[in-house]
Amino acid sequence: MSYRTLDDLDDGQRVLARFDLNSPVSVGVVEDNRRFARHARTVRELVDAGHRVALLAHQGRPGRDTFVTLEQHADILAEYLDHPVEYVPDTYGQTALDAIEHLDASDVILLENVRMTDDELPERDPEEHSRSDLVQTLAPEFDAYVGDAYSAAHRRHASIVGFPLVMDAYAGRVMAAEYEANSAIATREFDGEVTMVAGGTKATDVIEVMTTLRDKVDNFLLGGVVGELFLRAVGYDVGRDIDENDLYESQWLANREKIADLIENHPSDLVYPTDLAYADGADERAEVTVAEVKNKDHDYLDVGSDTAEQYADIAANSEAVFVKGALGMFEDERFSDGTTRVLDAIAQGDCFSVVGGGDTSRAIEMYGMDEADFSHVSIAGGAYINALTGQPLPGVEVLKDDGEW
Ligand SMILES: Nc1ncnc2c1ncn2[C@@H]1O[C@H](COP(=O)(O)OP(=O)(O)O)[C@@H](O)[C@H]1O
Ligand SMILES: O=C(OP(=O)(O)O)[C@H](O)COP(=O)(O)O
């Protein structure tokens, strides 16, 4: 193995760990989400091994409403951990250094939002970041650095890439699990069919992923905004904005050439919806076959039942399924069918499966599915896209021993 994990870390050390607890914030209130539960497992291991643990994390960006202190994060994490997490309102000043000095075995402190320091946010090379005041002040206080913030590993920020250069560095459990699963489509050979659910609203991201993975994926199951854009490209009158909706036109103009290229060169990999669902005059779910659509007079908010059944079948018979984007607006139960039927088929089967995307993965808990029925449910957004498109993540690269993760 070419990177060190917690298995390689001797007990009873002074450990600085970088997590990603970045969360939605609604009117100043930090919302609980699966990042806390996941990172709590890494902290639990550190606590059980008798380490003295200081956590570094960020929240929001300067100037945004979500840019708040980490006080609430400490409380939420402590709940998951069932162990105290002391919030320290300072990142690397004297207050922080005093708190670090007073750590006992198995104590956990959470240092202040690292983006409140000037050193953190500039995108710089690891060497330059390793010379920053932040890194130079904190590094000597610890024996080891644990990088667990996979979902922020696409950022070349000081606390992500600076410490590993000057400290013994280890990948945390979240980092290792995310890396292994999300890179699998690029790095693993599968014997059977590889399928990708290509849906959701961020069509530009998804079409970039499709273009990169066109030789690896056997079936792209098209849905959501992505599906409509592909249908438009083959001559159906969908994939257009209605009224104020601005999901389609700009993404059509930005991606039409890539779409045309995929259609021309990989036609047999593309699986189109054959029917679509919308809300009728009585606000009930109604369906129409794609062939019957004469002009786009409805917002199509899900794939239809025939499509859902066909997609579920393909997923169930695949060796590996990667999900990027939902097939419909599943938050509204009327339009959840496409997404849930395919997720159910994956969950009940035994294929290798990865579900990514903050919004899409919410469908799993919303509809009472068990995360354990999937090989991996990612907590990353941008980093997941970077991994799928084969771009190295700086926060991963710095943890490699030999440059060959
Ligand atoms: N036809 C559609 N119209 C509007 N929204 C849709 C449609 N299909 C899917 N969605 C929305 O797509 C979202 C998930 O995809 P997206 O935001 O692209 O991905 P991510 O999971 O990466 O955050 C869901 O919140 C869902 O409501
Ligand atoms: O939440 C994050 O990324 P995501 O929105 O892609 O999931 C990370 O914490 C990175 O945050 P940033 O996009 O403000 O650098």
TrEMBL record:
Keywords: ATP-binding, Cytoplasm, Glycolysis, Kinase, Nucleotide-binding, Transferase. The keyword Nucleotide-binding applies. Transmembrane segments: none annotated. GO terms for cellular component: cytosol. Pathway: Carbohydrate degradation; glycolysis; pyruvate from D-glyceraldehyde 3-phosphate: step 2/5. It catalyses: (2R)-3-phosphoglycerate + ATP = (2R)-3-phospho-glyceroyl phosphate + ADP. One of its GO terms (molecular function) is phosphoglycerate kinase activity. (2R)-3-phosphoglycerate binds at R35, R115, R155. Pfam families: PGK (PF00162). Substrate binds at D20, L21, N22, R35, H58, Q59, G60, R61, R115, R155. It is found in: Cytoplasm. Its EC number is 2.7.2.3. HAMAP family: Phosphoglyc_kinase. PANTHER family: PHOSPHOGLYCERATE KINASE (PTHR11406), PHOSPHOGLYCERATE KINASE 1, CHLOROPLASTIC-RELATED (PTHR11406:SF23). Monomer. This is Phosphoglycerate kinase. The gene is pgk.
